[in-house]
Amino acid sequence: MGSLGVTSVIRFVALSLLPLCLACILARGVEPANPARRLRVGVVQMALGRTIAEKQQRILAGISSAAARDVRVVVFPEGALRGIDGDQPALVEQAVSAIRQAAREAKVYVVFGGATYSMKLRREANWMQVIGPDGREVFRYEKLYDNHRATMPGVFLIDGIPCSAIICADRWLRGVEEIPIQQGAQVSFELSCNFATEWVAPFGWYWYVPRALRNNVWVVFANTGNKVSGAPDDPAARHELRHGHSAIIAPDGRITAAARDDVEAIVVADLDVSQATRTAALTRAAHPALRKFWEAGATLQRGGTVEAPSLKPLTAAEADITLATAQVVDDLPSMQTILARARATNADLVVFPARAIDETALPQLQAAARDHRMTVVVGTEHRRAGQRYNSAFVIGPDGSLLTRYDQLSATPPFQPGDDPSAMWFRVKGVPAVVTIGEDTLWTELAELAAVAGAQIHVHLDRDPANDPEAALRRLQVWSNLASFQTFTATANVVGSAIWDDLRDAEERRAEVQGLPRPNTGAVEVYSPFSANLVVRAGPNAPFITATRHVGARNRYHPARTSNFNPQMDAWYRFGAAIVCPEEPTRP
Question: Would residue 105 be called left, alpha or beta, if left means φ above 0 and alpha means ψ between -120 and 50 degrees?
Fold first, then answer.
């Protein structure tokens, strides 16, 4: 059973943002109320069942057990109300009525998922409801991965607290995951029924911790478990094995409470809502380079229209690409030696960390790149007009400077950059981008670059923290950054890594359909629903390389975007034009 967790006393003062939150809610027709400051949430990690009646009884029992712990909000996974007889509307309606009555009697909110047969779609489709303490429906939405034309979900209130919700795979649709947070949601609920293979132990809660961090909101993850650990309810149906690990995650990324295994449990935590400042989310949306993108998303989500240019993704001839990272800083002779070593391994691109050298040393590094006919990305502190910038310089194999990108997400003492199009360059003709520092949490940059055609992503950091918690946090964040069908190098002073998500579609299809896993090459950590960790640097291996075959184009869009969320197609095209307004002229 999950442990009882209570939030820390660290609080972020953000009351000045509350009027904006409520204004956004009013714009969507949600009646505001005086919000509670604390909210006790209980996640019921329940196992699969065969019939609607069986699932109804489990839900009612879960409400009773959670209410006994003074829980105000009881949360169940995706498809909690689901059964082989879900094609009988009367049975489903009777079960929902029973849940309403239980919520009213216990004076709790109930957040739960269901699945019923859709005559329109001619298959089963998932949905979710929020029932209030008076037994009335507060919120409902249909999973877009099942019903692509369903209404986009927005913000709802629980005791006056703005909230949002995601059903499982809809987490990969940014309009579902993050636009409601931009509109004021301070608690993000996700109801899932994840395959067992979606839990990748070395990465932990790799989708949920970064969501909390990049938005500064509470994340409540409710997942399906098993009656017996490691065993599906039906021994003949191994695909029904689920991974559990439901969790409640604080706005600073801490795991406040969690089920540490895959069996049935109840996870309880008290949420200090004042911690959910949404500061990071609002900072991203207010950046001059991204403000119009987020405004366009909100317009489309409300059913409006946006003028967006047509999209012609960048392409290239297929090529074998070898990426290399080197954890070398403040040592130009060692960097020059590294380039010679990289040439011996046939590396095409060598990446050094952020602020690895002084800008005055660039000419010497350019000469070394020219001598070894190699593309180099290196971080420096760039000064311009009395201002300091955390910058990345890309050096071509002829020694020329291909581009200089200034970190968009920079904070003092550095000035934020203002030109995302400076991210772009090419390696053997393959479109590539570079990001720096906290850009790693600004994953709209990585996603929109992939939509525009990037197939290589290089990220520079300079974070020396290497305790287990910090190392895990980096892996979780980098895993998100690299999961847009790119070949990715993340260079840092410790723990540098190379990631591969190029065969994302094949890996997912194999898991869903029970097919053999594709041969993606040797990896340190295989993760079929995110990027694979190919190789990681260590104390005795500060220089690492990996090779992958890169195809003619990145197929992330529209396969993972507009195909599932056609209402937002213009948003992706609009955003791609912002980060890559035209074919890069740089070599």
Answer: alpha
CA distances from 392 to 322, 410, 481 (A): 20, 12, 17
Tokens of 379: 């971080």
The residues facing 81 across adjacent strands are 114
The torsion defined by the Cα of 48, 54, 56 and 59, in degrees rounded to 10, comes to -50
Give the neighbor-by-neighbor strand order of the sheet with 487-491: 424-427, 430-436, 456-460, 487-491, 497-500, 532-536
What's the burial of 564, exposed, middle or buried (CB within 10 Å: 0-12/13-18/19+)?
buried
Fold of 4-238+262-286: Nitrilase/N-carbamoyl-D-aminoacid amidohydrolase (3.60.110)
How far apart, in whole angstroms, are the C-alpha atoms of residue 162 and residue 33?
10
Distance between CA atoms of residues 584 and 581, nearest Å: 8
Q: How far apart are CA 175 and CA 207, in angstroms?
A: 16
What residues have CB less than 8 Å from 155, skipping those under 6 apart?
Answer: 24, 25, 28, 30, 162, 163, 164, 180, 183, 184, 185
Decide: 418 and 387 in contact? Cβ < 8 Å: no
Quick one: CATH architecture of 319-579?
4-Layer Sandwich (3.60)
* Cis peptide preceding 558, ω within 30 of 0: yes
Q: What is the dihedral of CA 412, 413, 416, 417, to 10 degrees?
A: -170
Contact 207, 91 (CB under 8 A): no
Of the CA atoms within 13 Å of residue 295, those in its CB half-sphere come to 10
Count CB neighbours of 520 within 10 A.
18
Beta carbons of 454 and 182 less than 8 angstroms apart: no
In what order do the strands lie in the sheet containing 543-550?
Answer: 401-406, 387-395, 375-384, 349-351, 319-326, 543-550
Assess whether pLDDT exceeds 60 at residue 550. yes
CA distance 437 to 313: 26
Strands 255-258 and 247-249, bridge-based pairing: antiparallel
The full DSSP string for 278-344 is -HHHHHHHHSTTTHHHHHHHHHHHTT---------------EEEEEEEE---S-HHHHHHHHHHHHH
What is the Cα–Cα distance from 110 to 103, expressed in whole angstroms?
6
Could you identify the residue written with the tokens 């991204």? 290
Residue 168's Cα: distance from chain center in Å?
12
Question: In this structure, are residues 481 and 434 in contact, taking their beta carbons and an 8 Å threshold?
Answer: no
pLDDT value for 327: 96
User: What is the residue extent of each domain of the chain?
Assistant: 4-238+262-286, 319-579
The average pLDDT across 128-150 equals 97
pLDDT at 4 over 80: no
The whole-model pTM stands at 0.92
Q: What is the pLDDT of residues 375-429, one digit of tens each?
A: 999 999 999 999 999 999 999 999 999 999 999 999 999 999 999 999 999 999 9
In eight-state DSSP terms, residue 207 is T
